[in-house]
Amino acid sequence: MGATYKVGYFIGSLAKGAINRKLAKALFRLAPEGLEMTEISFKDMPLYSYDYDFPAVTRGFKDALAAVDAVLFVTPEYNRSIPGGLKNAIDWASRPWGATPFPVRPPASSAHPRAPSGRQSPSRA
What we know:
Layout: E1 5-11, H1 19-30, E2 35-39, H2 56-66, E3 70-76, H3 84-93, E4 107-112
Parallel strand pairs: 1-2, 1-3, 3-4
C-alpha cells in the first residue's frame, strides 16, 4: 500500500441534511485507496472582522486546513456565488496576510446549482 494523501473537504451548506454532504459521502466511497478524507467544519466561526484577534475556533480551523494535502469544496451555488458561510471561512483562512495555507494546497470544487446556468461562480472562487 502506498502513502496516504490527506484531503480536507468543505461542505458549503451548513444544513445537517444538505445534499452536498450526502454527495461528498458518496464521492468518498468511490475514492481510491490511499485517500484520507476529513471534513473541515466552519459552522461555529464568527463573521470575519479584522477587529478580532483570532478566536480559538478559527485557529483550530486553520490548523485543520494546514494538516491536509489538498482541499475539496462540495458546495451549492447561492446567487451565482459561494455560500456566505464558506466565504467567511475563506476570509478567516486567508488572514493574516501571507499566512494562508491555501496557495500550497491543490483545490477542487464540486458545485451544485439548481439553475441550468449555474456552477459558474464556485468554480472560479
